[in-house]
Amino acid sequence: MASWFRRYLVPGLVFQSISIAGGYGTGRELAEFFLKYGPVGGLLGLLLPTTILVSIACMVAFELARIFRTYDYKSFIQVLLGRGWFLYEIAYLTSVLIVLAVIGAATGALVTESFNIPGYVGTAILLAAIAFLTFKGTKVIEGVLSFWSFVLYAIYITIFAFSLLKFGPAIRNTISDNLVIEGWALSGLRYGSLQLALIPAILFATSHITRRKEAIIAGALTGPILTTPAILFFVAMLGHYPEIAGQTVPVNFLLQALGSPALQIAFQLVLIGTFIETGTGIIHAFNERIAGAMRSIGKQLPVYMRPLTALAIVILALLLSQVGLIDLIAVGYGALTWVFFFIFIVPLLTVGVWKILQQR
């Protein structure tokens, strides 16, 4: 893998890969955080507070990790929060369970709706794939997550193009109504904060960064890398506004409206692959945290513990997934946004910036 690609693009691609399934893969998250504020209000929320906040926070986080050589989330948070590091860990593990529960609920719904097979079959595939990738380790995970990001971009661009061809006039009419409902900026900020909670989970992908310039460029690119597919997807959804906002899995509604069975099957397979990516990324971060703690006392994490940890966490999350996709996103994500805003985003943009400026 080319050195420039690892330094400038891999961090953003890995971040997008582990964020997308819990961030906008099903479309339910876009409906909850953006579509309710109107078509134009939602676009403004994605383009401004979300993209800008993600880029700025990633620039700071990547540089902080480079300076202090903190590539697992515990050591990074200890630099940032000191003795308060455990607050982030509690919130992180809670978010891991909720994100994986969202993935589990969405996987069950997708395989049942799309392939007419029991949801537990999709769940079993999800479980086995996550365990396998976590077993393979950092290098394989970096490669898989980076490659799959390009697959995701291809499928989202295809859906966007098909939607413009088939529902272009409806999309233009919806946007021309210029509907902006108050609250879009705050919702974009909340959504960005929720995505940024996973920054410490992808710091293993920033170990190739060696200079401040590289950290700043990689961080600046991360915001657009994350939100560009979301914006394409959001615009495609506007051809069916407002009815699509009430759908449990809006992407299924959109694909059925497009009337292309091949595209629908391709997207479902890609999305399930994305769920596997997200689960692998956030669990790998937890494994790296355990490995770091064991190294500090002169021991090594046994290889077999990585897939076992993955299996245990995923099973707990799948039990939680019985709550339902809409409630998990509305209630679980809604609460976590403020938790991470105050215990991570605010310290990152204040204490983190100050610590960077203290280093020469």
In summary, what is this structure?
The protein has 360 residues and is mainly alpha-helical.
Average the pLDDT over all residues and give the rounded result.
85
| H/E element sequence | HHHHHHHHHHHHH
Which CATH class is shown? Answer: Mainly Alpha
Compute the number of helices.
13
Total beta strand runs: 0
First-to-last CA distance: 31 Å
Broad shape: globular
Spans with pLDDT under 50 lasting ≥5 residues?
A: none
CATH architecture: Orthogonal Bundle
Q: What is the count of distinct domains?
A: 1
Q: What's the CATH topology name?
A: Hydantoin permease
State the CATH superfamily name.
Hydantoin permease
Briefly note the structural class of the backbone.
mainly alpha
The largest sheet is: none
Percent of residues in beta strands? under 5%
How large, in whole angstroms, is the Cα Rg?
20 Å
Please bin the fraction of helical residues: over 70%
Task: Provide an overview of this structure.
With 360 residues, the chain is mainly alpha-helical. The protein has a single domain, classed as Orthogonal Bundle (Hydantoin permease), CATH 1.10.4160.10. 80% of the residues lie in helices and 0% in strands. The relative contact order is 0.23.
